[in-house]
Amino acid sequence: MSKVPFRTSPMLATLTDGPFTKSNWVFEEKYDGVRILAYKEGSAVSLISRNGIDRTVRYPAVASAVRELKSDALLLDGEIVVFDSQNVSRFQLLQQHKGRTQYLVFDCLYTDGQDIRKKPLSQRRKALERLVKPSTHLLLSARLDSDGLEAFKTASKRGFEGVIGKNLSSTYLERRSTEWLKVRASQEEEFVIGGFTAPSGSRRHLGALLLGVYSGEKLLYVGKVGTGFNEHILSSLHDELRALTRVKSPFSSKVHEPRATFVAPKLVAQISFTEWTRDNKLRHPVYLGLRDDKSPNEVVRQKGV
Predict the structure, then answer these.
(1) Per-residue DSSP letters for 241-286?
(2) Closest Cα to residue 1, out of 79, 54, 73?
(3) Options 3, 30, 40, 281, the catalytic residue
(4) First to last CA, the chain
(5) Is 30 a catalytic residue?
(6) Is the pLDDT of residue 304 over 70?
(7) Secondary structure letter of residue 33 according to DSSP
């Protein structure tokens, strides 16, 4: 059987403070989904998350679409998403299994017996466009505009999560790099769940989740989120959190919640919010779902370069 002779970690973009434009850069839509490396080895396909977990069984339609590609041994990089009615990717829809899963592919790392990670992105994209023909569950990532400022305007107008700028000369690196830069059009980050509050009124199971980010080995409390839940989500979250309860707070700072139940910091939540307050708390946070492709110790406050 044909094999991809290596396993790799995904190249990650660095957050930058605002929109920009540069010559010899391209600007792509930033998708709100799950990062996946797809290995095709003969008829065998493996869909691997950024933290190395095999998700092939979770996304069978995507695996089948990759299996149909003609190259015997192939490694692709992309994002699995679900689009809403306005053709905007929504992590919440993917997490709740609502809608068609699609693999938006933006890079090719191995094909035709060749490791092409050291080739410039411009050549890797050409290989990708030759190999991948759009289908129901497999698409090429959208390039918005050659001008980064115009690309950002498009992303903001359409309601996209943001823009990824990429240097066309860049090689593929197994780490975070400034050769790929991301600009947010909306605020969305991951946070560690360190506890929850008791429900009130007609709500059952739990009231709000207590959230934090790591700074070194300290988990800093950044506020709570009490919206974005339905009855099923509340029940499921409560079951998972109840198994993690502990007496001592995992946060390094005081949490002024007299009815709080603390938990071991094992779960990561995706949260949208409007801004950070002056005292480093989240303003208007909304729960979007759990992320099992991120380790809690990876969760730090995202700051621009």
Answers:
(1) HHTTEESS-SBSS----TTEEEE-S--EEEEE-SEE-TTS-EES-E
(2) 73
(3) 30
(4) 44
(5) yes
(6) no
(7) S
- Distance of alpha carbon 189 from alpha carbon 131, whole angstroms: 33
Do 168 and 25 form a contact (C-beta atoms < 8 A)? yes
> Given a cut of 80, is residue 274 above it in pLDDT?
no
Give the model confidence (pLDDT) of 157-208 as tens digits.
Answer: 888 989 999 999 999 999 999 999 999 887 889 999 999 999 988 888 999 9
Q: What is the pLDDT of residue 109?
A: 98
Residue 226 tokens read as 């009490």
- Contact (CB, 8 A) for 282 and 272: no
Q: Is the pLDDT of residue 262 over 70?
A: yes
C-alpha distances in Å from residue 247, one per residue of 3, 195, 241, 262, 288: 49, 10, 13, 6, 27
Q: Which of 170, 160, 166, 133 is nearest to 148 (CA)?
A: 166
Task: Give alpha helix (H) positions in 84-220.
Answer: 91-95, 121-131, 148-158
Residue 147 CB burial class (10 angstroms; 0-12, 13-18, ≥19) = middle
* pLDDT of the residue at 305: 58
